[in-house]
């Protein structure tokens, strides 16, 4: 195309420069344009030019050659222009396509052959402890895969932390790393009476001994069988019973709901059975209520009004039996009786549900619905790390700015952090969740007895794989957790812990100095902080657990609740217990409570607990005689013993600060160095008079302080759920011995809570906005100034006299020259994985 058009243009240019040509007219139009012959060829006669004697043009070949050269030159020029433009465009595109951001500081995988003192057990250690116990003939253990209700088997193996003094001696470089040991929970179903036993096994990974132990903090020398968690072996038998019961109840199930359990099509007409706890009304009982749901997404919001109680206290499954059935608010004691009455005429009140259509299913689902706020879906803001991550992960050790700490996952309670240091000084030896409870109230047999102690449901071992871009930012580092709980072999939940730096979207501190008509300066620092997160799902609720490390030396502990509410059949939904959230569905009032262990070590372990109690008094104004004012004052009170620090503070209605301090370590300005505990999640324990909440006596105290004992390592236990009436571990016993807590190693126990009266906006599920609780550990005269002043991310601005500003970013660039590597939900797997050695 280019060659032809340019050649034609050149030909026309030469024609316009010629003399007029003669033409013969024969009555028709004659084209006077010259006939252009391709080169080489005869020069047209119509050209007026010098001719040779024989009449032919002597310049013809030369001119034809020149024309051809012009065409070639034009073509080459155009090609070069096109290539030049293409190069310019390519360079522009390359410049616009910025490189991927660098990864930043290193992430070093855990060394499974050389576990550190705080590390959880490795797969090799799990297996060595398990195999060692299975070979102890006196224990008469059978492998979990072959176990039955009346046999002895291993339920769980977990890392047993060494004594604190031993660990501290090691950390100080005085002694070698303590030997690693495991604690094994063994179900002794073949003994009379049956029981649960706990054994220490060590040293790992080559065990040579085992020892039966009883925690001195337990209220009983023997762990009752009725208090054990329900495991897979027990559930298998229970659900086998429910299958057979459902066969007998088929006429009722299909007639009432058009659903069944034993011969249904998944996603079409199936019914589900789920259990609640505690399992009975008095200590020693093991009677579990199961209730039914429509098998759809968000089934928690589709209760059917059919509930069955099974007695499974005996280790002889032939003695297990149905003790009660409730259908549409009517109670029966035998399955046959209910079936007979249902088949009769006017012998009971029947339920007649119509099959739900797609729209009725939708209300409990996460499917998008409603008018969209955006014509086209647009991505939301994302985190970017322009210089890569600014924290380092080495196995289970994390370093960030001035922070250093270790973490691990405990199967019962989840994420723990240890040896928390700031500027190389230990702030806390341990910060860890102890239990999370949910206490319901209601009329029906299920809602009226639902009191959940989630440590018994294994909050750590039921944690989830985290979804990049939703559960954690795409910039996060994701780590795995291994467990050997309720199974034969160790297994892994991949990406169950995430670590990431966040901006907080707020300044950590800032100030603008203004005066009439101008300003003299601005200074500020973004609240960059590190978050370590895990999320667990217990039944209907999802809990997001965060440990947050700020640049000012503060530690923040936060819990966010989401997931589905526990709903009941509307017949039981008296308005004093809950509001309707859909047709025939009511969600009941409940309270969440979370207890944390906070073992602060301020300049060593010799610490005390002080309250700074605020009051008012009237005084004369010093500079105005006869004028009086009311002012605030505070008084420091050292709490002498555990009763003063726990029950005594429940009656202290004064505003106050709670401070853990070291009276022998003072700051530059002669104040005791300390850390303040600021609880923003205080919630009065509402059901403390209920018999089923005795296992949560810790919930009475927003803050309790006790003397450190290695055997008082947890405030709750995995046995709380199934014997809360006479708990094996009673937190009140920690306080009632009334140890001195002055100048000694002390532990703070912090309780946060949420009261929840569900409403229609909890459909499909509760949102984290408004469902978060948090407490802080804040430096209090610990430093001579805020330690964040060392941050190179501080921004300082002053005005120039001639206009403009002086900007000092202390060497930090605010320009992002890279693109964050994408790591979205498509990377999610969701499966549990076997651990390979």
UniProtKB/TrEMBL annotation:
Top-level taxonomic group: Eukaryota
Required cofactor(s):
Cu cation
* One of the record's GO molecular function terms: primary methylamine oxidase activity
The UniProt keyword set, sorted, is: Copper, Membrane, Metal-binding, Oxidoreductase, TPQ, Transmembrane, Transmembrane helix
Mention one GO biological process in which this protein takes part, according to its record: amine metabolic process
Domain (Copper amine oxidase catalytic): residue spans on this chain = 382-788
Record EC number: 1.4.3.-
Q: Which residues cross the membrane?
A: 72-94
Alphabetical list of Pfam families matching this protein: Cu_amine_oxid (PF01179), Cu_amine_oxidN2 (PF02727), Cu_amine_oxidN3 (PF02728)
The top EC class is oxidoreductase
Q: Where is the Copper amine oxidase N3-terminal domain?
A: 262-329
Active site residues of this protein: 454, 541
Query: Where does the record place the Copper amine oxidase N2-terminal domain?
Result: 137-209
How is the cofactor bound, as the UniProt entry phrases it?
Contains 1 topaquinone per subunit.
Report the residues modified as 2',4',5'-topaquinone. 541
GO cellular component entries:
plasma membrane
Tell me how the protein is altered or processed after translation.
Answer: Topaquinone (TPQ) is generated by copper-dependent autoxidation of a specific tyrosyl residue.
According to the UniProt entry, the coiled-coil residues are none
Q: Which family does it belong to?
A: Belongs to the copper/topaquinone oxidase family.
Annotated protein name in UniProt? Amine oxidase
> Could you read off the lineage of the organism from its UniProt record?
Eukaryota, Metazoa, Spiralia, Lophotrochozoa, Mollusca
